[in-house]
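Following up on my earlier thread - several people asked me to post the actual chain instead of describing it. Fair enough. Here it is, all 383 residues.
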Amino acid sequence: MDTLTILQHYWWFEISLLGALLVFLLFVQGGQALLPCLGRTEEDRSLAVNALGRKWELTFTTLVTFGGAFFASFPLFYSTSFGGAFYVWMAILLCFVLQAVAYEYRRKPANLLGRRTFDVFLTINGILGPLLLGTAVSTFFTGAPFTVDRLNLADAAGGAGVVISQWATPWHGLDALANGWNLVLGAAVTLLAMMLACQYFIGSVADDAFVARARRRMLPCALGFAVCFAAWLVRLLFATGLAADPATGTIVAVPYKYLRNFLEMPFVAALLLAGVVAVLWSIRLGWRGSRRAVGFGGGGTVASVLALLLCAGWNRTAYYPSLSDMQSSLTIAGSSSSLFTLRTMAWVSLMIPFVAAYIAWAWRAIGRRPLTREELDGEGHQY
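Reply from S.P.:
Thanks for posting it. Predicted structure:
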């Protein structure tokens, strides 16, 4: 492979890794969705919110970094999806704005709306955030209605109405909700977030009654996730995918494309299998009350999502299939930035291990001691 191809694959890996980390960090949203179930009293809800408050900014930061990396590495996808499906992305943004407002003002003096109102904001974000993100990720495999005309880039006199990509329906992303399989993956991500939140509470809250409720709630969430994810994955393996013909570069339909990808990239299949096994093992550890459950669950989630996203983009696969015009489908070779941009970003990315090490240190430092009810009345910062 030439340098440009190597960098395109490298940056798809980096974006896939960010996406995988984001799905794991959605456990914060999962915990918020469980507030009505786990927070029977005001003190219980404050216990859950303050435990999640230690980590909520990591999720938001990862989401912003994910979008920024996509914009810099594959700008054609950014303009097509973020610019075309803006109803969905605006809904996701609004959900996270509600979350930020709730955490900042829930315990402020003279709170006019009251804590319960901000708890409702957190619950809305906890349900809609993972559901919409999971639905959006599913379109990497099921496709979206858009067209791309690269010749418009050369039309300097075309005026403001000339764009390179256009959405083919007036729904601008909401049409993804009409595809049942998109909703299945959205439900799977939501239930996974709830399951991981229960595992997080087991290791981060020092209250026997609260932890017992989290353990009981984890099992139905895990069962629902397993059913939804297994159904979606089986359908994916037998689905027809789109890929770029290696000789001509044209987009062609390939039966069992994603199954072929796993067979032709066995290391990706092994990563998916290892991730699934780790998630299943975390369920057993969580039921036994082990604080290590969220470590296995988080690691398995990152490995599984990383494998799926690599399957979506590598091996000449069209990672964003067009339902309106097959030749408009996006591949990493046809939608990336220039060689200069990717090379410059690759040098900058050498700082990523240091940033990751800092995040890991901060995670351990902040969550070293489980949260107790006595700390809710302390003088430190409270959510």
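The radius of gyration is 22 Å. That should answer part of your original question.
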